[in-house]
């Protein structure tokens, strides 16, 4: 078992409480929309402390929950007892998924690509482990436009330090378009939070070609 880094420990102290409040303010509805189409064998990358769990359909064949932060994984394990679907919690890294090619019907990620060192590589891994026609269900905060985008660029170095590598200014839609995915639907919406650098959101579905 790996031990948490300083940055992971700090993040695990404040993030679950912060995001639980945002979920109560409406984020949970977005998660429900995002995850309603999950089916079959499903992988969630960067599952955190498990805020997405109550929003999965109950009839999944299997749900694999990947979370590299040991402090969050402990909370995730406690919360996963409420799941109907057969589930497994694993350590791992979205940049190098330890699963065979085409082994999932669905992959999901919520607010994860902001934190990745090499998001294009991780998206390639999502593509590899999805079967042809499989679905990637996403939910990410992204760079906004105008003044907000400029402020996000400015604060990203600080936000990365305070939030375990989180970039405020990722252009997730361009990343998706550059990969071998067909965007089936995408909703441009807002995170219900007072923290302006993480307000613009995209929620949707991409199909693996
Ligand atoms: C902002 S949190 C989101 C947590 C959860 N998905 C949610 O919606 O509340 C980002 C998550 O990505 C995870 N993460 C960071 N680097 C990762 C990596 N290389 N592979 C997989 N997950 C990673 C973090 O540990 C953390 O749980």
SSE map:
Layout: H1 6-35, E1 41-45, E2 62-66, H2 70-80, E3 87-90, E4 104-110, H3 119-129, E5 130-141, H4 146-162, H5 172-178, E6 181-190, E7 200-208
Parallel strand pairs: 1-2, 1-4, 2-3, 4-5
Antiparallel strand pairs: 5-7, 6-7
This protein binds S-adenosylmethionine.
Structure description:
The protein is α/β, with parallel strands linked by helices. The chain has one domain: Rossmann fold. Helix content is 36%, strand content 25%. The protein has helices spanning 6-35, 70-80, 119-129, 146-162, 172-178, and strands spanning 41-45, 62-66, 87-90, 104-110, 130-141, 181-190, 200-208. The chain has a seven-stranded mixed sheet with strand order 3-2-1-4-5-7-6, sandwiched between helices. Helix 2 (70-80) links the parallel strand 2 (62-66) and strand 3 (87-90). The N and C termini lie far apart (36 Å). Bound molecules: S-adenosylmethionine (SAM). S-adenosylmethionine binds at residues 19, 45-48, 51-52, 66-69, 72, 93-95, 110-112, 115-116. S-adenosylmethionine (SAM) binds at residues 19, 45-48, 51-52, 66-69, 72, 93-95, 110-112, 115-116.
């Amino acid at each position: 078992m790996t031990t948490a880094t300083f940055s992971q420990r700090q993040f695990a102290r404040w993030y679950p409480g912060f995001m639980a409040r945002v979920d109560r303010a409406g984020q949970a509805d977005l998660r429900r929309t995002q995850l309603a189409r999950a089916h079959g064998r499903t992988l969630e990358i960067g599952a955190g402390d498990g805020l997405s769990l109550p929003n999965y359909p109950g009839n999944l064949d299997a749900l694999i929950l990947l979370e590299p932060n040991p402090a969050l994984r402990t909370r995730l394990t406690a919360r996963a007892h409420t799941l109907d679907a057969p589930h497994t919690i694993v350590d791992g890294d979205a940049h190098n998924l330890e699963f065979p090619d085409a082994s999932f019907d669905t992959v999901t990620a919520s607010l994860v690509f902001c934190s990745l060192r090499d998001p294009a590589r991780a998206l390639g891994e999502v593509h590899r482990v999805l079967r042809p026609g499989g679905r990637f269900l996403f939910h990410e905060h992204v760079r906004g436009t105008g003044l907000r985008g400029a402020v996000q660029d400015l604060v990203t170095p600080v936000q990365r330090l305070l939030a375990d590598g989180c970039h405020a200014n990722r252009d997730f839609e361009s990343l998706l378009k550059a990969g071998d995915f067909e965007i089936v639907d995408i909703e441009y919406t807002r995170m219900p939070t007072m923290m302006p650098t993480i307000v613009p959101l995209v929620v949707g579905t991409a199909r693996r070609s």
